[in-house]
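FAQ

Q: What does a record look like?
A: Structure on top, sequence underneath. For example:
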């Protein structure tokens, strides 16, 4: 059984890898924006094509693998061979499905691109998006390989590699973009039309993106060997409980189809604004910023807790599963509330890091702000969803995802009636509102599944966190105005370095005040957070 200290160490190690990867991810986006812009034909068509592999992958295997692999592998450890045979069979199934899917999806690149792009997209932009898609769609196989290898490592309590190898992906991608700029020049304002992109330009830009994903996946084989695992293809798929895994996967598969449908609707609507207004590339960049604190904090903690929850669930210790979920929610929310507050206040300076004109800063900043309002609920939902998965229940998440997707589709269609410059921000706000509603429903359903969910304690902690954030937010807004972060030509939005300096100043002041108020409130979760850090400093 995992001890709290081991959970803490695993979470810190996961977070450190994620931080490095995300920092490099931001550098990659900045370099990409400098190469092809964040608004314009090149940026939007590449964004559409480069998200296609993710959309196809999550339908076929993404969340299915994450939801099913860890609980099933933990249970397979009871087999005589320690689960090695089961792992080989499950991995063989996954690779066959991924290989076939990748080939079919690549052949269907024109149809898939037309499916997700707005029918109002011009033919030259559509042709460019299809050309990018041919190079990007092979990423499906390597995303799947990375997930399978990584989740097996997580189930064997080797948590670090899957969070550190994305660093290689970002390094390769950044190198590819630099090569692109050296060979073909930069277009930071996105002025080049779709017809300006030659086959060589397309190959270097999209090919390097796919190469980065391949390197990320293949590197995990090295860590398999380090923990004593060796993959041997095994096509004898009967007799080791794969039917149970398939039954669980069927509901997750349905859930992912729902989320992908919502994603397709979003892309079709937002690409209507492709050209001079915020569109697919802006929406993707804002989502990357939204996901930064979630990836560093929530995913790092929940990944470590997920294995422990699966162990407790397999032993029928529901009270311990409940405690794990409560601890994960309260612990992550303490930092997520602060992260949400800082990013909301610094939305415009954050946007200035990626774009240059103040009009674009406003467009990107408004999308960031609309997304970030739902970050706390999104992170709580993530833990609740993983709790259902640990219990072997993938059916219930399907229903609360259906609820969310219905709200998103209705809202996004409504956004098509907005002025073009507000479509992206409107979609982000719709996603936020639907996510909050989904989290509330998911908590209610989890209570029905395991009895009480420690709701009073969780709400008491969240109330403290939000109360502690009120004064820091007010002070942060005052500092933002003082630094000129809301007007064209102001210091905080005058340049990239000035924007970063402003964010550091505002974020630092807000963090000190936030934690100081939590100390005055005698917040128990803060003691749990600072205790290990202080103990390490005293050594």
């Amino acid at each position: 059984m995992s001890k709290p200290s081991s959970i803490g160490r695993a979470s810190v190690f996961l977070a450190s890898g994620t931080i490095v990867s995300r920092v490099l991810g931001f550098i990659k986006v900045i370099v990409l924006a400098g190469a092809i812009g964040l608004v314009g034909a090149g940026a939007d068509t590449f964004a559409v094509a480069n998200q296609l592999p993710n959309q196809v992958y999550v339908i076929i295997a993404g969340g299915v693998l994450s939801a099913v692999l860890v609980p099933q592998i933990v249970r397979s450890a009871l087999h005589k061979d320690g689960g090695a045979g089961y792992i080989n069979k499950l991995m063989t199934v996954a690779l066959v499905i991924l290989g076939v899917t990748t080939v079919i999806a690549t052949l269907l690149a024109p149809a898939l691109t037309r499916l997700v792009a707005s029918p109002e997209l011009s033919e030259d932009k559509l042709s460019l998006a299809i050309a990018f898609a041919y190079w990007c769609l092979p990423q499906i196989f390597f995303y799947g390989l990375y997930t399978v290898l990584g989740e097996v490592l997580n189930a064997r309590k080797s948590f670090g590699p899957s969070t550190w190898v994305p660093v290689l992906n970002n390094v390769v991608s950044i190198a590819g973009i630099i090569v692109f700029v050296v060979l073909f020049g930069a277009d930071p304002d996105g002025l080049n039309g779709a017809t300006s992109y030659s086959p060589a330009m397309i190959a270097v830009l999209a090919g390097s993106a796919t190469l980065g994903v391949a390197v990320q996946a293949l590197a995990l084989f090295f860590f398999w060997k380090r923990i004593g695992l060796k993959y041997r293809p095994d096509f004898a798929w009967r007799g080791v409980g794969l039917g149970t895994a398939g039954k669980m996967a069927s509901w997750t598969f349905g859930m992912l189809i729902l989320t992908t449908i919502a994603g397709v609707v979003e892309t079709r609507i937002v690409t209507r604004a492709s050209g001079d207004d915020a569109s697919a590339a802006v929406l993707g960049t804002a989502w990357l910023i939204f996901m930064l604190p979630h990836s560093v904090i929530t995913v790092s903690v929940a990944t470590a807790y997920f294995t422990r929850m699966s162990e407790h669930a397999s032993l029928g210790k529901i009270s311990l599963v409940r405690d794990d979920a409560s601890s994960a929610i309260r612990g992550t929310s303490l930092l997520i509330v602060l992260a949400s507050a800082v990013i909301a206040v610094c939305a415009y300076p954050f946007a200035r890091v990626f774009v240059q004109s103040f009009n674009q800063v406003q467009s990107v900043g408004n999308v960031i702000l609309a997304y970030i309002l739902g970050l706390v609920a999104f992170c709580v939902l993530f833990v609740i969803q993983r709790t259902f998965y640990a219990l072997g229940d993938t059916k219930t998440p399907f229903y609360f995802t259906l609820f969310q997707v219905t709200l998103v589709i209705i809202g996004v269609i409504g956004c098509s009636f907005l002025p073009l410059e507000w479509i992206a921000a409107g979609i982000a706000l719709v996603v936020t509102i639907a996510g909050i509603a989904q989290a509330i429903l998911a908590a209610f359903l989890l209570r029905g599944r395991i009895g009480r969910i420690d709701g009073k304690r969780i709400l008491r902690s969240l109330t403290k966190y939000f109360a502690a954030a009120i004064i820091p937010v007010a002070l942060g807004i005052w500092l933002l105005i003082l630094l000129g972060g809301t007007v064209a030509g102001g210091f905080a939005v005058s340049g990239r370095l000035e924007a970063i300096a402003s964010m550091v100043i505002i974020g630092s002041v807000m963090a000190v005040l936030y934690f100081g108020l939590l100390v005055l409130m005698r917040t128990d979760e803060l003691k749990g957070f600072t205790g290990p850090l202080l103990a390490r400093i005293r050594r």
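Q: Is there anything notable about this one?
A: Residues 374 and 521 are 25 Å apart (CA to CA).
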